[in-house]
User: Which sequence fits this backbone?
């Protein structure tokens, strides 16, 4: 939505449709990604969502490699720093279940004692896979039909 | 005579518009809620509807959907008044069939009149307002008639006279919110405060008190978000609400002069080593049409600060090479930035520990992950304070 000089507003670009599901989700289920935040940050523009998701997935995949290396080498400060950065981006985009795991890694890194960091890392890596699958399903449901050019 | 139905829950705003339209040759009627508006539409048979989106009970979007579902009114022009910070709601209004959406932040009666003339014609057209083609002038402010100016000044003075009472009511509402100890009570008080702030936005908008209307609109959007998503009610967001009410009081005193009704341009620096966080901050600033420069490297940021004036700086705390606190301490030694407001962006766990922030010379902080609109509100406060505070 934009303001024109005379104070009237114009409609924004088409928004991404909601994902199609076969059955209603249980009321208490916490999804891997709060799509509302992603939608808000991109004003619901499907291309912007795709671009932001690509950026997040690439960045986070690299950070998980660094985290794994840090945990294996017992480099607590590296773990703290990378987990902190990854948690910030993930929280910004509404990765609700992923963030607490990263915060735990950050906490253990800050304390200098990576006591259960290996298990927490494994859990975070599994959760990241779920996020990838979830976002892929979202983006596919928002994709235009085959043969349709995207502007 | 063309007929206009105004559906608006604020009696003062509705009456001001109705009277102005009547004086200018339209027949205007008012409905104070959506259901009444729909009933009145069927009997009054208006040529256009002016609709506030933020109505109690039946929402403005529901009203539009209902209007569009009735064959007799499927093409009826619907002019929607809304809050520019509620982008999703505005998109819903477009989808439902709104004809035009107009920001409440700055919509004095003369602007509504021009809009009506363009949309449905009619009214007693003043030649001074039209171009040779008969189309409305693109800058009506430059050809505003003396009568309009007097009317606007009277409106402004009436509103200014009511501001002390408004502030007292806002403060009482805030006090109730802060004191409330259950979620039910908290939500009730957020809703009450929301309604009051909504009224401030509407009243300031018609009186042309742009900075007040702007800040009230942003606070209204924040309160709406807190009401709809109570999990976001925390120490950070409540503190932001309190600071905004406090700053509205400041603007009520110092932000009403006619020559101070533009939102001044501001230069904002964002320093965060993480690209997605930077993007979120920039997005939140753009909500208020605030432009920013962003950098990921604190050393590069320091160089920029040494060479340029900024009105506001957002600093991530945990950055490699130099923390946000260290950068803040350094920038306070720069002649250009002894007083520049600095807002730290920090993890929620750090929120209670204000000491490091204050020791480093910071002015404010916001918890990560922040609500976009919360950051928008904070930025507006700091930018407007800088512009309205007399130089020391």
Assistant:
């Amino acid at each position: 939505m934009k303001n024109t000089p005379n104070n009237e507003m114009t409609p924004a670009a088409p928004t991404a449709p909601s994902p199609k599901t076969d059955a209603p989700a249980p009321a208490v289920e916490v999804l891997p990604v709060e799509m509302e935040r992603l939608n808000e940050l991109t004003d619901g523009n499907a291309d912007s969502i795709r671009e932001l998701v690509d950026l997040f997935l690439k960045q986070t995949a690299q950070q998980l490699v660094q985290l794994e290396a840090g945990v294996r080498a017992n480099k607590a400060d590296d773990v703290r720093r990378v987990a902190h950065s990854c948690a910030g981006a993930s929280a910004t985009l509404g990765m609700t279940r992923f963030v607490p795991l990263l915060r735990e890694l950050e906490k253990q890194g800050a304390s200098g004692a990576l006591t259960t960091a290996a298990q927490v890392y494994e859990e975070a890596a599994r959760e990241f896979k779920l996020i990838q699958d979830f976002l892929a399903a979202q983006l596919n449901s928002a994709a235009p039909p085959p043969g349709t050019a995207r502007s | 005579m063309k007929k206009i139905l105004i559906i608006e829950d604020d009696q003062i705003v509705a009456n001001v518009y109705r009277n102005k339209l009547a004086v200018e040759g339209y027949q205007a009627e008012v409905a104070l809620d959506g259901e009444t508006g729909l009933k009145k539409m069927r009997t009054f048979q208006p040529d256009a509807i002016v609709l506030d989106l933020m109505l109690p009970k039946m929402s403005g979007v529901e009203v539009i959907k209902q209007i569009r579902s009735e064959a007799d009114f499927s093409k009826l022009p619907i002019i929607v008044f809304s809050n520019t910070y509620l982008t999703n709601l505005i998109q819903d209004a477009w989808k439902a069939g709104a004809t035009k959406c107009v920001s409440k932040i700055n919509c004095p009666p003369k602007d509504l009149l021009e809009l009506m003339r363009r949309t449905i014609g009619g009214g007693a057209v003043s030649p001074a307002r039209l171009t040779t083609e008969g189309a409305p002038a693109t800058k009506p402010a430059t050809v505003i008639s003396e009568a309009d100016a007097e009317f606007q000044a009277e409106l402004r003075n009436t509103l200014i006279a009511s501001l002390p009472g408004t502030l007292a009511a806002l403060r009482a509402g805030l006090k109730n919110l802060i004191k409330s100890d259950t979620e039910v009570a908290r939500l009730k008080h957020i809703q009450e405060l929301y309604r009051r702030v909504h009224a401030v936005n509407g009243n300031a908008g018609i009186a042309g008190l742009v900075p007040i209307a702007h800040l009230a609109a942003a606070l209204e959007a924040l309160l709406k978000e807190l009401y709809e998503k109570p999990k976001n009610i925390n120490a950070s967001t409540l503190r932001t609400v309190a600071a905004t009410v406090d700053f509205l009081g400041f603007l009520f005193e110092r932000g009403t002069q006619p020559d101070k009704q533009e939102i001044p341009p501001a230069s904002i620096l964002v320093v965060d080593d993480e690209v997605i966080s930077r993007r979120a901050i920039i997005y939140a600033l753009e909500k208020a049409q605030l432009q920013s420069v962003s950098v990921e490297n604190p050393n590069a940021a320091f160089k920029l600060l040494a060479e340029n004036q900024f009105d506001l700086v957002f600093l991530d705390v945990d950055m490699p090479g130099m923390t946000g606190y260290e950068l803040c301490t350094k920038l306070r030694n720069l002649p250009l930035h002894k007083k520049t407001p600095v807002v730290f962006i920090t993890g929620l766990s750090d929120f209670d520990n204000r000491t490091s922030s204050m020791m480093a010379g910071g002015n404010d902080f916001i918890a990560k992950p922040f609500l976009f609109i919360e950051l928008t509100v904070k930025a507006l406060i700091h930018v407007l304070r800088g512009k309205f505070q007399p130089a020391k």
Q: What stands out?
A: The interface with chain B takes residues 1, 3, 5-9, 11-12, 15, 40-41, 43-44, 52, 55-56, 59, 81, 84-85, 87-89, 91-94, 99, 103 of chain A (CB under 8 Å).
